[in-house]
Amino acid sequence: MISIIPKELLTLPKLDELEICVFGPGYGESVVLYIPQVGWGVIDSCVARIEETITVLPFEYLSELLTPQYPKLAFVILTHPHEDHYKGLEKLLKDYPGGIERVCRYDGDGIRELKTYISTQRIASRDVLPGLVEVFRAMQTATESGAQLRRLNEMTIVFEKERVEVEGYGTTDIRMIALSPSAESIQKYVEILLQAVPPVGKPVKPLKDKYHNLISVALHLKIGDLQVVFGSDLEKGSDCKTGWDCVIHNRDCPDLWANMVKISHHGSEGGFNSLAWKAHTSKGKPIAILTPFCKGNVILPKDGNLENFKELCQKVGITGAVKFNENLHKYYSRRVVMSATQKARSFKVIEPIEKAGFLRTRLGLDGTIIECLAENPAKWV
Amino acid sequence: MENATAQKISQESTTPLIEDITGSLILRDSIPRTDPDKENTGYHISEQSSGSESPESKQIIEPAKKPIYEITENIDQWWIGEVLEVHTNEGYFVASLRDVIGPKVESVAEFDIKTISENTEEVEQCLFPGANFAFYVVTEHGIGPPRTSSGLQFTMPYIWREGDNEKVKELYRDLFPSDPPLDE
Known about the structure:
The complex is a heterodimer of chains A (381) and B (184).
Chain A: E1 17-23, E2 30-35, E3 39-43, E4 47-50, E5 53-56, H1 57-66, E6 75-78, H2 83-86, H3 89-95, E7 102-106, H4 109-123, H5 132-144, E8 148-152, E9 157-166, E10 170-178, H6 183-195, E11 219-223, E12 226-230, H7 243-249, E13 260-262, H8 274-280, E14 287-290, E15 293-295, E16 298-300, H9 303-312, E17 315-318, E18 324-325, H10 334-343, E19 344-350, E20 358-364, E21 369-375, E22 379-380
Parallel strand pairs in A: 3-6, 6-7, 7-8, 12-13, 13-14, 14-17
Antiparallel strand pairs in A: 1-2, 1-20, 2-3, 4-5, 9-10, 10-11, 11-12, 15-16, 17-22, 18-19, 20-21
Helix pairs in contact in A: 3-5, 4-6
Chain B: E1 5-8, E2 17-19, E3 25-27, E4 43-46, E5 72-87, E6 92-99, E7 106-112, H1 120-126, E8 132-141, E9 147-154, H2 164-175
Antiparallel strand pairs in B: 1-4, 2-3, 5-6, 5-8, 6-7, 8-9
């Protein structure tokens, strides 16, 4: 087992501190939270391959930090079915020793069609969304072991507690709600999934990855004087019916000012909604965290987008960096390099990471920043 | 007699070719005659001494059953590729590559569309985002110096057939046994 927390950081948050720890090793994203009077929770999961070992980051973090007492996890949330958000989740669901109170995922209707889509692709010998079936099964097992299954869409409650006494702070309401997906987004998603089953005589092709962002669950947490927004991969949306556009125009949407924002969609232009950010910054500049993304030639965030966030926020953290190496001789023999580079017009290796890293923030319920640390290769920019 | 080879002679055979005990065909006239004083038992023993160069000793040389060289092919490297972007106008596509053997790293590569095939219809059918392919480097050893080559192999997409919808329902039941079946 690879240890990801340095010894000096193996400290628990105080009972009146909100902790948000974000992992993003270059492909993948996961958030581990501690919420006073609610407990520990996880939003999404990711893995890192370090020295030939595949480490499920939220599971490893909780195991190292909470050992030997493993309190029940208050919630585990899957925001949408992208591999970089669910990889390793089945291990957390099956193997976390303390058990889980709530297992939450994006809304119902699309799930059945998604499962049909997966089955259809498997008939065509294509393993789309690898590992997702195992995640669904692990969720089912967790609910059979006593966890409550909660389906999340716009304005549904993940948990809510009123007039809770928090030692060191006083009385507060605590609430986490899902801001998305909207009914229109779900319908659009279902239609797209149904179209993936072709008529007889036509080829079976996989869906474009981006469609799964339609049903992404963005979350809003309110506790004490704090508000935190977790953007997942929700995109800016259009016509007030999808994405952030729909969230902002929802009559029941809470005030979206924020002390802290987990930036949507890896800081991409497609995830940036100016109205939403106007709301986030309406009471002051928040702390913002984003996770990088790399697939093929798509690398997020782009430099220009990062500069934009630096202007909007008091502090921007990025959880990792993707590095390419064009020196193929480091990995392959001369013969292989010569032959491969004759065939390919360009060829670069994604450098394996040596450490996972994370960004951890601890906030007092009155808004005080208690800790704002970056474990390498994560950094504040 | 050293290295004697027994040969059976068919007395009634009139063909010039006869079969010896090993199954090889030989000319009748090539068989050395036996001692006329000895009874002709129907078998003719030809005398062969080891290393004999005598023109009287007839040696049957069987054709070689195995070639004297073999061609072998070694796989030097093998990747599973997934097409990420297709730029038809510019004539290339972008793919992620995952090592099947070797250092187990992930890579990103760009290939000319022409490397798949000159047949545009074939390319149109098998090249799309999400398509999988194999990219390999092999070395052939045999006659002459080793020859290294590389190639891409795409599979044609699966064509949906009558009855596949029923298969989906069955597979759904297997993958998600706790869910209500798709018929409902």
